[in-house]
Amino acid sequence: MRILILEDEFLIAMDVEQLCRDNGATEAVIARNLDEIDQEQASKNFDAAILDVMLGGASTLPFAKKIHENGVPFIFASGYADVDEIFTAFPGIPVIGKPYSGTDLIEALAATAGRLPDSGGV
């Protein structure tokens, strides 16, 4: 799987990238802001995504809506306080709150992407 990681905190992004690789991702691509990726091609370029809700003060919710409409499975991994807004806009999409354990993150991503950890990871 090719995973997109939207995370603006460098150390967290590096940890998440390594977690994805350790659990079977063929590639994990980090973007610290939405300008670093081709938003129009994201649905074609990635099999799943891990999204922080806010990147440098900019909301990722419009991007999340776009990839959701295009069938890309994703989870939110965020310290963003207003999770009710996320649950309302994206019912059924997992929200993993910061700080989170790597196991919780990978299990949520694997479940969302339809891949259980014991069947090959993410």
Automatic annotation (TrEMBL):
Q: Which UniProt keywords apply?
A: Phosphoprotein
In terms of InterPro entries, this protein maps to: CheY-like_superfamily, Sig_transdc_resp-reg_receiver
- Response regulatory domain: which residues? 2-113
Modification sites for 4-aspartylphosphate:
52
Which BP terms in the Gene Ontology apply to this protein? phosphorelay signal transduction system
Q: Which domain of life is it from?
A: Bacteria
Q: Does the keyword Signal apply?
A: no
Protein name (database record): Response regulator
